Amino acid sequence: MTQRQVFPPLTLRTIGLSWGRGGMALGESLDFSVSAGRCLLLRGPNGTGKTTLLLTLAGIVIPLDGGFALEGGDEEIAQIHYCGHRNAIKPLLTVLENLEFWRAINGPTGASCAEALGTVGLLGLIDLDAGYLSAGQTRRLALARLLVSLRPVWLLDEPTAALDAAGHGLVSRLIDRHLEMGGLAIAATHDPITLAEPDRLDTLALGALV
Amino acid sequence: MLRRELALALRGGGDVLTLVLFFVIVGAIVPFAVGPDKVLLARIAPGIVWIAAFLAMLLGLERLFRPDHEDGSLVLLRQADLPLSAIIAAKMMAHWLVSAVPLILASPLLAVLLAMDLASFWRMVLSLLLGTPALAAFGAIGAAVTVSVNRGGLIAPILIAPLSIPVLIFGVGAITAEQSNAALLFLAALSLLALALAPFAAALAISSAED
Amino acid sequence: MSIDSAPKQSWWNRISHPGQFVTWTKPLLWPLTILTAVLFVAGLWFALFNSPQDYQMGDTVRIMYVHVPNAWLSQFVYGVMAVSALGTLVWRHPMADVSMKSAAPLGALFTALALFTGALWGRPTWGTFWEWDGRMTSTLVLLLIYLGIIALWRAFDDQLRAARIIAVFTLVGAINIPIIKFSVDWWSTLHQPASVFRADGPRMPGSILTPLFVMFFAFTFLFLTLHLKAMHTEVKRRRIATLQRKAAQGAAS
Question: Which residues does C contribute to its contact with B (CB < 8 Å)?
Answer without folding.
Answer: 89, 141, 144-145, 147-149, 151-152, 155-156, 158, 161, 164-166, 168-169, 171-173, 175-176, 179-180, 182-184, 186-187, 190
